[in-house]
Design goal:
Number of helices: 7
Shape: elongated
Oligomer: single chain
Distance between the termini: 74 Å
Largest sheet: 4 strands, mixed
Strand order of the largest sheet: 1-2-3-4
Radius of gyration: 29 Å
Helix content: 25-40%
Order of helices and strands: HHHEEEHHEHHEE
Amino acid sequence: RQLREETEFPLLPSLIQKLQNKDKNLQRLLSKEPTDYSTRLLEGAKLITFRDRIYLPKPLRARVIAWYHQYLSHPGQTCLERTLAQTLYWPKMADQINDYTKTCKKCQLFKGPRKDYGHLPPKQWDNLEPWQRVDVDMVGPMTIETPSNKTLMFYALTMIDICTGWF
């Protein structure tokens, strides 16, 4: 029976209710007045909610994160957090999701590289007249096929007027 509970879908209302009832701290929070905690009937189970989101007991948290992370095909931390936060709540939820996504081997292996380069500084064209300043660059190598099936490789010299954007 214990093995079955560990392998079944982690968001079964009956399973959540059972674990919420065992959580003495959660029961204490529910009994305080006034409180953001309340109960709600969902699929025949009486669940404790926090501001209309299901309070997820500690034993299910890691399983829910892992299940959704796999089910959503390894979304990033923000996407996973926003998805879970729509219906679920637990303290320090964002921290736990962040820790999980940072240690997922697949995510780290296939995550795109971060580029901290390639951004040009803003152009300064105050008090410039058209064609007063021209930026020059070399583009290439480029290849083209000629009508006689020859492949030519060339470079192109580009010039652009920064005031008008004409090249």
